[in-house]
Amino acid sequence: MAATGEVKVLGTWWSPFALRTIIALNLKSVDYELIEETFVPKSELLLKLNPIFKKIPVLVHNDKPISESLITVQYINDVWTSGPSIVPSDPYDCAIANFWSYYIDDQLISNLRAISAAGDDKVAKKAAIDKVVEGLVPLEEAFKSISNGKKFFGGDTIGYLDIALGSFIGWFKVAEALNEDVKLLDETKVPNLVKWVGDFVDDSAVKDVFPAIDKLVEFARVFLSKRT
Ligand code: GTX
């Protein structure tokens, strides 16, 4: 659907959180302008639009800012009502999607961050890697029950949980590339999720905005070395 009013995203090409907002806009065929945040230092615009957390993404709709990636996805679903529904309309299904998205951010992504935060500490790094690998197993089970044999958590089209998890696929691949012999998305443990990765990145709402893995790996080498 054509955009109602002006839509901007304060984000970056490499941010998995900003990718959530962008994919949701693409699913609803909403035109937007991406304003690249450079971070060093944080822009005046970011400080003004998200003074509490000072993080991207910020979705700006008709000059009104909305922060927190999953809140922007919910907002986009609520405002652009035509096109595929991103958030399940059934309250129970919606609660389940919220539960797993909370799990993704609170557990899985925290453990993914812990891999790089471990630096040269091999024991801590292995523990974080194991936690990510094991942490994907409940999501494999959730996928089987929620997708009901279809391609996505959302069914035939990408939904809320696909966006929540799928936006991090590039960063899972970064962790694999930067850590020798590490397979996070392991076909023997999470075969359905491995197939889902292929379907997700091939989707028309995703493929043009999904960062090239080589470029992301090069970016991550520098980005992560500055943080540790
Ligand atoms: N909970 C927030 C959301 O969902 O929007 C998190 C947003 C966030 O952390 N954004 C980062 C930021 O603005 C940029 S994206 C970082 C991705 C790292 C991936 C590692 C696996 N950070 C600024 C800051 O922390 O000050």
Main attributes of the structure:
about 230 residues, alpha+beta, Glutaredoxin, Glutathione S-transferase Yfyf (Class Pi), Chain A, domain 2, 2 domains, 9 helices, 4 strands, about 55% helix, globular, binds S-hexylglutathione
Notes on the structure:
- This protein is an alpha+beta fold and 228 residues long.
- The protein has 2 domains: 7-79, 3-Layer(aba) Sandwich (Glutaredoxin); 91-227, Glutathione S-transferase Yfyf (Class Pi), Chain A, domain 2 (Up-down Bundle).
- The protein is 55% helix and 7% strand.
- The chain is built from 9 helices and 4 strands, in the order βαβαββααααααα.
- It has helices spanning 16-27, 44-49, 69-79, 91-117, 122-147, 160-166, 169-178, 191-202, 213-227, and strands spanning 7-11, 33-36, 58-61, 64-67.
- The chain has a 4-stranded mixed beta sheet, covered by helices on one side.
- Helix 1 (16-27) links the parallel strand 1 (7-11) and strand 2.
- Helix 1 (16-27) runs antiparallel to helix 6 and helix 7 (169-178) crosses helix 9 (213-227).
- The protein is globular, with a radius of gyration of 17 Å.
- The mean pLDDT is 95.
- The structure holds S-hexylglutathione.
